[in-house]
């Protein structure tokens, strides 16, 4: 069985098909143990990251909303909903994260008709303020809104590129999945 099939199978076993709520222990298992087993050295993970970088089309073609500068604005905005995945799993240092909301079934229909996922913006906050510095807890633009696309196009590449703490490979990920710095407009 290929690495891709193993990861997809584990993803479907451990994850809800229509929400971003995961079982944290299972998610941690998939994110670290499986990837470190399949790509068992930092060099192999870096090579996988470089291949992903060369093949990925990024998020510039998506019309993603800007992150509100404060958590209160994100709550009131109406464009964002609280991320159900605990922030300590993917965004250590964040108190809370929000994702740009989209109608789930409309997104599934769009994907089924066109093969395009609308993507989404993830905004993470510490002490009520948007995190914009480096990778310490910050959210990123996501190519996938639908769970399986999000995992395949956004989460797994973040592990390949950033789990070893190598700034050079992690910067490749952040070039394709930039951290939004928010906007200045009060809402």
List keywords for this structure.
187 residues, alpha+beta, 5-stranded antiparallel β-sheet
Provide a descriptive summary of the structure in words.
With 187 residues, this protein is an alpha+beta fold. Helices cover 48% and strands 10% of the residues. Strands 1, 2, 3, 4 and 5 form a 5-stranded antiparallel beta sheet that branches. It is globular, with a radius of gyration of 16 Å. It is found in: Membrane. It comes from Heterodera trifolii. This is AMOP domain-containing protein.
Q: How is this fold's topology laid out?
A:
Blueprint: H1 3-14, H2 24-38, H3 42-55, H4 71-77, E1 80-82, H5 87-90, E2 96-100, H6 104-114, E3 120-126, E4 129-130, E5 141-142, H7 147-162, H8 167-176
Antiparallel strand pairs: 1-2, 2-3, 3-4, 3-5
Helix pairs in contact: 1-2, 3-7, 3-8, 7-8
